[in-house]
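Fig. S4 source data, part A: sequence.
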Amino acid sequence: MKVLIIGLGNDLLSDDGIGMYIAEQLTTTFNNCDVIAAADSGFGLLDYVYGYERVIIIDSIITGKKPVGTIHHFSAVDFSTFLPFSIHSTDIISILDYSRQCGFSVPNRIDYIAVEILDNQTFRESFSEVIERQKDQIIMNVGRQIRKMIAGADSGVRAEQNALEEAYQ
């Protein structure tokens, strides 16, 4: 199965860049997946996802219901009625549906990993103190979540798990 992991965000808006940062840190961890960081959203994501069977999107979210640093997991089913996911909120589900109707090869499965953040409004090229303190643990947790999601798709997951744990211990 051809899998893309894409970290989204804006690294000029404090914690909003966490998705891109995580993807950059994971680029050598998942050999059976392509991993990229992008500041695009909506239709801009189509160029990245063409030809993949599954896409895992890593982004930030502010729910105010969970502690900062919490990892949320959503699937496309969770967005059957569009609710803003983040400041990159474009109805990617509808965009992919329209693309399928036009005959484009777009993913059959989309998963979202969202990191609960504190600040996505402050123009700053660094994370808030709370995200900065937790970023290594967040990377470990996101990597663990991704491994669980693709565990059945690749037999090399165990080696990648060991590499990830060694890299961040």
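Fig. S4 source data, part B ends here. The first helix runs from residue 18 to 26.
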